[in-house]
Structures are given as C-alpha cells and as structure tokens.
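#data-curation
PF: Archiving a pair of folding outputs for the training set. Convention for this channel: one message per protein, sequence first, structure tokens after, nothing in between. First:
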Amino acid sequence: MDLLDDTPTPPGNSPEYTVSELSGAVKRVIEGEFGLVRVRGEVGRVSRPASGHLYFDLKDDRSVIAAISWKGQVAKMQVRPDEGMEVIATGRMTTFPGQSKYQLIVEDVAPAGAGALMAMLEKRRAALQAEGLFDAAAKQPLPYLPRVIGVVTSPSGAVIRDILHRLRDRFPCHVLIWPVAVQGKDCAPQVAAAIRGFNALEAGGPVPRPDVLIVARGGGSLEDLWGFNEEIVVRAAAESRIPLISAVGHETDTTLIDHAADRRAPTPTAAAEMAVPVRLELLAAVDALGARLSRALAQGVALRGQRLRDLARALPRLETLLATPSQRLDTATGRLAGGLSLAVSRKRGGYERQAGRLSATTLAGLVARRREALARRAEALDARLARRRDLWHGQFDKWASRLAPSLARLVTQAGVKITEQRKGLHAVSVRLDKAPAQRLTDLARRLEALDRTRQTLGYAQTLRRGYAVVRGDGEVVTSRAAAEKAQALEVEFHDGRLALGGPAAKAAPRKGGGTKPPTQGSLF
C-alpha cells in the first residue's frame, strides 16, 4: 500500500439535500428570523396587474428588495405606494423558491418623505426649466407628411417592431434606425450622440436627413429610465433642429426628455401614430374633397346659367334695339348723296374764289405794297440811327471834358459799334430786298399747286376717266326716274356734249306689241 494515495476520499456523514429541500429550509430560516420587520426605503418600479396584487421595489442607494402586497392587503392600505415615494413598509420576509429570490410581503405602508432619486430629479428639472429648455415657444411643429423618420432605440427590442409595424399600417415611409443602449451607464451618451448625429446629416447627402425623430423605449422602473433624465440627453433634445417625439416608457412614466422634446407620446406606438397620418384616410379625404369640388363647380355653373337666363329675359329684343339705329342709318344714307353733291359744290366755289384772289396781278400788287412798306421802315430806321448818332455825339462831347484821357478810346469804341450796326443794317436791307421776290415765288408755287388740285378735283378730270354727266332740261339728272320725266337729254363727255331725242323716243313701240326702251337707255 502506497503512503501517498491519490484516490478521492468518499464524503463523510454530510447529508445530501434536494433542491426543494434546500429551498424549503432557507424559507423556514428566513421566515423564522424575520417574521415581522419594518423597512424604510424608496419605492421603485410599481406594477399593478389585473389580479389586483401590487408589486413594487424598495431600494436605497445600494440595494433593492422586491415587495408584494396581496389583493386583500392592498384594499386595507390607507396609503398606496407610488414610484419615488420614501415609505416605511411593515411585513414579513419570505422566499420564492421558483426563482430563488427573497421578497417582502408588505401588509401596511406609511409615507416617510420624498425619495432621494425623486428629489434629485426634481432639482434637475427645475434647473433645466430655469434655463428655458422646456419653453413651449421653442417647440417645433411636426411635419405633416415626413419622407424620412429617424428612430433612436434598441434594434433588438419590441419597441422598434411596434413602431415599424404601425408605420407600415398607417403610411409607409423611409425609416433610419440609430441603435443605442436604452438602459445602463451607456444609455445617456449614446442617445445624445444619436440625436446630434441625425442633426449633423446634410440635406441631399448620401444619407437622407430625417424630417422627424423618435426617441423610444419600453416601460421600466425609474432606475431603468434614468438615462433619459440625464442632462446631456435633455440638452441634445432641446438643441435638435429636427422635430423630436419622446416615447420613453409607458403612459405613467415621465422623464426629463419628455419636457424637452417637441411632442411627448405615451407609448412608442402612439409616437408612430403622431409622426404620420393614415394613408387611407388621406386618400378618402382627397376623394371627398374632389367630389365636393365637382359638385360645387356643377352647382356654380348651374346657378350662373340660371342667373344668365334670368338676366336675358330682362333684356329687350335685338330687333327692338336695332330698329332706331337702322332707321337713322337709312335716313343718313338717303341724305348722303345730296350732302356729298352740296359739299362738292361748296368746295368748288371756295376753290374758285381762292383762284380769283390768287391772280398774278394781285400778287404783284401785294409785293409792291410790301416793298414800299420795307422802304418806309428803312427810311425811318436811317433817321432813327441818325438821331441816336447825334445823341451819342452829344454825350461823348459832354463826357470828353471829364474823361479826356479816355476820349480817344471811347471814340474808337463808338466808331466800332456804329460800324457794326451799319453792317447789321446793311444785312437787314439785303434780306428785305430779297424777301418780296422769295415771297412772290412761294405764292406762285402755292397758286400752281392749288390750281392743280382744282383741276384734279374738278369733274373734267372725272370725265376723262370714262364718266359722263347727264342733263335733262338744263339740270343734272341723277336717277332713271328723272331721266324719264325730262323732255330732252344731253350727255357731256370729256371731248364734248351729245344731245339725245325728246320724249317721243321713250315711247317708241316694240315689235310684237311691246314698248321699245328709250334710245338713251342703251348708252348707259
């Protein structure tokens, strides 16, 4: 037999326990030692299931104890625990063998003051609110139809699935997911970085810039949601230029990001409903508006048509409106021929009077009178210049005695001035001599132009173009009835006049018993 034996020594007399036996033994020890205890702590996560029982946590800065109040005990409580309250719970300790955990069965709860976490949270909220991070005036409106939605949440939880499912049902759009930790020490820096990262995206860049952001997380205790109460997250949400929806926790959970966000949603699903409208409802609304527009247009056209018909019945008939103007037109048409003939006669008389006044003798007399007038004006001008010259000589003599040194200079200047005036007078005299001849030439040209106009407008030129003037009994005939009544007709052409037969020619019989047309009718 070896002195050193490596064979394991079998256990001694230590008993072997089953798991249930050991759990039962621990349960009996704990219940025996802590049959009735009073525990002071802050209420953490509170759960109220449909069974009526109450589940909550009691905690301090280092430890957490699970606490339970059964339905009958909850009904007897005068003060029911709420998250954040500091309470004194009275009950007994026990274990839950199914999960290897111990818990406190609470029979009564008494308030002990505000909890430390809630006090710190309230202090931080008041400080941030004083900075204006929660002001309602800084809230941005949500876009009605966002093209891109950015979601800041955990990619593996049920929250993102609920959001995507609700967006797909209501209005499918492009969704960008920024994965972050939603619990623990990494939660706050990652959420703040995600919000600032979405805001740093450029519009029109390779990664589309979201039109709205959703920060989402499921429910949990105050400790689980504490990352969304951190100052870095609140400041990032308040500085976001993209509208932000906070969907952290359930409806009863409130975090500081809810105050800084532009909108707060009670649940992540509600955040998706806030972000987009229902596409089918929009289509139905568009269809309804289109139908209303069509009905409004049809009704407007019908009302205006009826109004037009009513107004048309009040208007007079077209024949009534045109009767008086038509009568005035007929009257004016009947007077037009006579008026034109009278106007031509007046114009011809005026031209003849002007031609008589514009004869060569008249123009020569006018030129002679103008020449005599110019001669008289020239003589008067010479006399006036002489008188002025004598006056100037008298003044020069008067000033000569006083201005002897300057006499020669003044005489020279006066002589120069007189010379210049004489030159001007000579130029005027030359122009006066030429003016009658030029005036006579202009009047002769005007007379020739008027004579050409007279000849052009005279009826003689009209006769040269193939027309003729018919006279009956010495008067101009302008109608067939007047020609038939005339005793004798005379036709004037450009090269002479032709006399036609008398009244017997109008009634010459035709072969076959008819009446032969007048001889002169065949000439027109």
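PF: Second:
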Amino acid sequence: MSVPPATIRQVPALVSGPTRIRPAEAAARAVMLVLVAALTYAFTDSAAQLGWIVLLAVAAAPSFLARGHAVLAPLGRVGEVVVTCMAAGSVAAAADDAQRITGGFGAEAVLPYLAVPLLTAALRRRQTEGMALLGVAAATMAVSGFVFETLYLGYFAVCVQWLVQGAIITFATETMRQLLQPPDATPQPYAEATRLLTQLRSVARSLPGATLDPGGISEHLLEELRAVAPGHRAAVLSASGGGRLVVLAQTGAERVDWETTLDADSGIADAWATQQPQTASRSQARSHQGGDVSSLVVPLVAGVRTIGLVILETDASGAYPSVVVQSVTEVTGPASLRLEAALLFDDVRSLATNEERQRLAREIHDGVAQELVMVGYGIDNAQATLPEGAEETAEELRTLRAEVTRVITELRLSLFELRSEVDRNGGLAAAIAEYARTLGTSAGLRVHFTFDESTARLPAATEAELLRIAQEAITNARKHAGASNLWVTCTVDPPYAEIEVSDDGKGFADTRPDGRYGLTIMAERAERIRGRLKITPRHPSGTTVAVVLGTPPRRDSVRDSVSAPEGE
C-alpha cells in the first residue's frame, strides 16, 4: 500500500517522542540568558527586573525540550517573543527611573534575545513562522511601550533595529546555509559514466526478460493494445534525426507506409506537438485505398518529453470514443517509461561504440600504421644499398616490401571500416554503397548495386548494426572468396529490411578461423537487432550472405528506389 508523500511528511511532526538534550544548544541558550540578565541588572540596578529573565527561561522550555512537537515548539517560540518584547518596555522604563540609560534605550538590554526564537525557526526552514514571529514582536513592542510609558524615540529606534535584524535572520539564514555548505566533489566524467552504466546494467538485468530492446518493447505494447482497442493496423514510431519518425514495430494484414514527417498536416504531427491523443476519420498513411477509416494517435510521453507515438487504425467509422482512448492511454503510460529506457540505452550503447571505434582508428593510424610505413621505407633503403650480384637478397626484399604494402593497404581499409557511419541525411544504402565501392576498387572487384529504400528510416542503432554486417560480408568476399564480381542489394521498408551480399568466388569452402569468427560476429549483430542471418551457396559459384529484419511487405510501398548499373 502506497502512502501519499504529504502524509509521510506530516507523520513525524505530529508524534513527539523522547527528546535528547543537545549540549551545544543548551549552552548557547544559557549564555544568552546570562548575558541578557547581566545587561538588565546593569541598566536598571534592580533585582526585580530579573524576574523577566526567569519568565523568559520558562517560556523557552517548550521550544527547547519539545523542539520536534508540531504545537508546543511553535507556541514556545511565540512565548519567548512575547516575554522578550514585554520585558523590553519594562526594562527601558526601569533604566529611565534609575537614570542609567534614558530615552528608552534601555530596551537594548533584553531585545538581543529576540534573535534566539527567530534563528531557531529559520534553521528549521520555517519562514512562514518566522514572519509571524516578527509580526507578533512588532505588535508586542508597541503594547509594551504603551503599558510602561516608554514611547520615546530611543525606544522606537532600538525596536526597529532589532526587527530589521530579525528579518535578516529570517530571510537570509537559508542563503547563508547554502553558501557555507561545502560544495559536493564533482566526480570525474569517466568515473561518473562508469557508475551510471553499472547501475544501468544492474537495472537491465532485473527487468522482465532482461531486455532493453526498443523493437521488442514496441511489439509487446501493440499486443497489449490489441486487447483494449479495435485495430486492423497499428504501429509504434519514435523520433529520429531531421524531424522524422522511425517505425519501431507494426502489425496488420497489410504493411503501411505511415506518415513519418512531423511537419505534415496529420494527426501524427498534432499528437506530437500537443502531447494529447488525436482521433481522425482518415488514415495516417501516405497512401490509402479509401473507405471508412478511424485512426487514433496517442503520444508516448515520458516526463515532459514526447518520445514516440502509437497509431491505431480500423476500417470502420467512430471506432475510438473517449472510453477507448482512456483505455489505450492507461496502457501507453507505463509503456512510455519502458520505451524511453530502451531508447536511452540504445543511444548510450551507440555513442560508446562509435567513440571506441574512433579511438581505435586514431590509435592504429598514429601507431601501427605509421610504424609499418617506416618499415617499408627501411626495406626501400636496404634495396637501394644492396651490392651488385645480390639478386637473391633483392628478390626477398621485394617480396617483403610487397607484403608490407599489402598489410598497409589492409590496415587502411580497416581504418575506413572503423570510421564509416550511417549519415542521418544519406541513409543506410548510401553508407553501404560507399564502403562497397572503396573495397571493390582496392580489390579489383566489379560491384553491382540494387537499392530499394523507403523514405522512412530505421532506428539509428539498427542501421548501424546492418552497416557492420554488410561491411563484414563485403570484407569476407574480398579477402577469402577470390571473386571477380560482387552484388549488393539493400531493401529497406521499415520496420522491414534486407541486406544481401553475393559474390562469384570459390564458395563457402574457406575454413580459416578468422572467417568463422567473422560469421559469428555477423550472427551476433543480427541477433542483437532481432534479425536473421542466412548464408547460402550461389549458383553456379560463390556465396550469398543475407540479413533479414522483420517481415517483407505484402504490397508495394511508396519508395525512393535507386538501381545502379553494373560495374559502378
């Protein structure tokens, strides 16, 4: 059973338990009482006026001994203020009679104690109570001056002085507390990142299914919504770069080319901007066959940020009344937090991976690559200084120089692979094409491209994994297949995608350990994005490596298709 936070805060204040005497606080109050008593006697030369000091000690008892009580402690502080201000008038009058301090300035003997209740309230962060105590003090000073006939200019000057000091105590204590508090030690960026990532790993392991996969969470959300709302088509979209949305998951008898721009006149753009569910009597797809349609777009909001949208459509009119909308939002609310965690985890993993790839590329370029170049120069110098007749040594040096050149070329291609990324404007197909052209040129391969890419985009993390799989497949074909031609096919219709790399080499007969390791890496990457890796022989020779994500469309989508001629 959960308890509202307000109730939790109120419970301790209403319960008074045994109070432990604080020696420092007791000593401070005792010193202040002794000081006030000494000043009072010095100003009045009357032991009778010390009765006010006794009264003050009695009034202070509740606020000191029951300082945690919700009623007695504030009443005790009010009593201290009233007694102090009444004593101020009495002591001022007695000082005038004794001719020690005239003009009402004798109030100065008692009013310093006014700081005690005001400071106590301020330290307990009770500004409202402090303001009330100042009001009580001002009123009591006026009454005391009238009762003891000390309404002199000096009396008013002393009272105003201590009221101003009391206001400073009330309003400046919290500021002073923050200024005097030692600043927290700022952790080092990498130490803080390690701490946060360790916590994230622990949380991820404790989640149901131990998964932080945006696609899996989105599919589970659509399954939940199927039980509470009608729908022939449904999808979950999330934000991507350039003001566009990406499809994380979708269901339905037909694949839909959902509107993925946020600047269009659609329920999708309205729901994103207003963070409110939107219903419409038209489809949210870029192309639709017509007929009766009801659509519901529900924003997925985490805190104050829209992280995605859920779209439900059915081929009937008026299918989403307010009752259904409420049922849908009850499901999407908790799902928003799960999806945000998954998307953040994807971002962290992608950033960390890219940073590490760039770091490795820099270290290889500045370290091993430069050293190999120097080795090549050394071999060239050795060749140039060979004596005549050393043909056998010269041939060995030429062979060694060719091998060093080959290794340097491989290293440069590896650096290019490490630094390759999917441009948020160019897309996946362009990144794969650039890599295939570069490697094809270096190996003398004729590369043939077939691209069929939708205007919609896959999530950035998914595109990155597909690019790495394509790179590994192309690299394997270049290194091990002995092929003359390479065929690269890229089909993207989110959330479906298929990347296929074929060669006309010697087939999958290579049993080199590094080749098997490359296949293992590709399989792991495909599994990470919930895809399927297929390796099949190509007729009449060669191998085909394909990775498939999702299910293929059952009808044509609106696409931007590009087909490059052979040999490009």
